[in-house]
Amino acid sequence: MSEERVLRDQIRQVIDEHARLAVPIATLDDQADLFSAGMTSHASVNVMLALEDCFEVEFPESMLRKSTFQSVAAIGAALSELQSVSA
Amino acid sequence: MTAVPTWFGPTDRPLFGWMHVPEDNRAAGAVVLCPPIARELAATQACYRLVAEKLSAAGMLAIRFDYDGTGDSTGVDLDPHRVESWLAGIGHAIDLARSCGAESVSLIGMRVGALLAAVVAARLGSIDAVVLWDPCESGRAFVRQEAALLRLLSNDHQGTGDGTELPGFVFSAETVSHLGSMAVPADGARPSRVLLLTRPDRQPATKLTDALGTEPDLAEAGGQELLLEVDPGSRETPHDVVTHIVSWLHTGNRASPRAVSISAQDSARVPFEGGRLTERAIRLGPAGLFAMVTEPDAPTGSPTILMLNAGNDWHVGPNRLWVDLSRRWAAAGFRCVRFDESGLGDSPARPEKSANVVRSPDAFDDVRDARVAVEPDDPTNVILVGLCSGGYQALEDALVRPTRAIYAINPVLHFAPPELDTGAMDPRRRICWPVSGLASTYRSWLAEPVRRRLRTVLWRSIHLLNRDRGRDASTWLDQLRTDRVEVLVVCSEDEARPFGTARTATLGPAARPDSIRLDVIEGLDGALMPAWQRAEVSRRLTDHLLGHFALAEAQPIAQVASA
Question: How many residue pairs bridge chain A and chain B with CB atoms within 8 Å of each other?
């Protein structure tokens, strides 16, 4: 399994546990809008904190906007950026 | 049980709170409820009131109160030494409980309130039991969570340049630093018993209980997301958790019942901007609605300002805005009354009615009773101020009874009246466009940009068809104009939509002088979470008030702070 696939699976696990979506995350593709799928702003903060715990990163203020947490792909891109900076 | 409001603590910075006394005036110990802070304080007000009522029903004296700079108490967010003043406030509440004759004192704290309770228990000793209800991992984690939430709620966050902005509140750098470093002292006293309640999706705060040194009893803090993480109108009290906490405190309570002596102080001199104002807790009308009056020293003939609930928030207003405006406007000579409608905040529900019903038709009776109580000689001599459901209710009320002015912030005119669950819409509603279950379905299925476009089409269609002319804004605004009511509506583009053609007539510099003014602020948040929006709305309301109603001898009003 590619590193990217592993990353996406971990993100999906976090979303499943914390995003409180109206539909199972398994039914959504990586580009699907999580806010349209029922994730509230409060839930997105819980997702953010869980991602920080899971990947041992901290989202900087500049990344604290809805677009960062809009989809599995967007979260993956943000995490990749954070991990490349800290590497 | 009896709930008695009182001012207490230092006379130069009084705190406000409630004593919940068992029926027979005999209490087996006391419990001090340490509230959360900032946005979470408003979210838990009704829940804490329920806990206090259940504790007193179980034979304990319960004290709930507002920390310095929160709720009705003295002070503001940006005052110095916030964290130490909050810790001191718990100490004053403990002193109040002991002065009533309580043999032992226990503490309940939720979120940051749990951290504060743990620190006080370790510092003071002599605390019987401590309930740590979904404690924050740390003060720093709380600030980070709330600051992130504000940014995710509002993409156009502008910042204040003055401390850290959280949803609805601003903390100074000192407060953030002190919250981050707050810790239970290593050699502190150990409470006899500790109950740790943890959310099912979180790890238990064992660092906190290890620091306290007492092996905790563990339980689940279910329902926190429905209490803390939803819109104000959708909050649900976690009844099972409340029952468990009360039962745990009652079962392990070793105090024997003894007579308690209750002495309440219903008014206080509150410091404000270098001077002092009088604040007084009162009851209004036959329903006994709770209200706090802020009075200037010099009586004036100005209208009394009545502030209504926003959703099911309590009388301190959205993000404590009513407290801030009451004190500013009282300093300029106006008597201000912030009150709770029946079943909301600290007011009892009317007989055979449910508590915590937002937009209840009983609000018509509540506002009528409040007018008569505060202006018995001329109930028309009032200015009604409201946000969201309160703004709607203020407009409705001015159509029923003559009124000097209405300040409506983001009034929501299209909603599902609660009485539709059991029957027809209350005939007193003249400007409400009832929303059906179909609309709720569409909200849950369609993305916001699509919904916005559909709403625009819908409102245009409504005005074209004009099937219910009485509810059209131009019709009822004409009545308010004829009745010489000064109306200032401040709202977002979305909430301006129902005003239809009336909106274009009152917008822009070319608009003719009119008693009806509609100010649209792009992106205005429904609850005024960003600080700049609170400052801007406060400025517009204050300018209008002073421009239309200030007496010649009124004091110059302080510029509204950015927080």
Answer: 44
CA within 13 Å, CB half, B373: 23
CATH 3.40.50.1820 in chain B, residue ranges: 2-138+176-254, 267-549
CA of B164, closest CA in chain A: separation in Å?
12
Which pLDDT score, from 0 to 100, does residue B498 have?
85
Answer whether B152 sits within 8 Å of A66, measured CB to CB. Answer: yes
How high is the pLDDT of residue B555?
47
Domain range summary for chain A, segments of one domain joined by +: 3-86
A23 interface with B at CB cutoff 8 Å: no
Q: Strand B275-284 and strand B289-295: pairing?
A: antiparallel
Helices of type H across B100-205: 112-124, 139-153, 173-181
Q: Which residue has the tokens 């008014």?
A: B267
Tokens representing B237?
Answer: 């009290």
B561: three-class secondary structure by DSSP: coil
Q: Which of B148, B225, B229 is opposite residue A64, by nearest beta carbon?
A: B148
Q: Does A22 touch chain B (CB under 8 A)?
A: yes
Domain B2-138+176-254 architecture: 3-Layer(aba) Sandwich (3.40)
Q: How far is it, in rounded angstroms, from Cα B474 to Cα B86?
A: 49
Assess contact for A82 and A18: CB atoms under 8 A. no
Kindly report, residue by residue over B94-118, the tens digit of the pLDDT. 999 999 999 999 999 999 999 999 9
CATH of domain B267-549: 3.40.50.1820
Q: Which amino acid is at B249?
A: L
Give the residue among B110, B137, B43, B207 at the shortest CA–CA distance from A52. Answer: B137
Beta-strand ranges (E) seen in B366-443 are 382-387, 405-409, 414-415, 433-434
**Span A3-86 CATH architecture:** Orthogonal Bundle (1.10)
B450 touches chain A (CB under 8 A): no
The CA angle B338-B38-B305, to the nearest 5 degrees, is 15
Q: B276 pairs with which residues across the strands?
A: B271
CB of A13 within 8 Å of a chain B CB? The answer is: no
* pLDDT, averaged across chain B: 89
Q: Which residues of B touch A45 (CB under 8 A)?
A: 145, 148-149, 152
Interchain pair A42, B229: CB under 8 A: yes
Would an 8 Å CB–CB cutoff place B151 in contact with chain A? Answer: yes
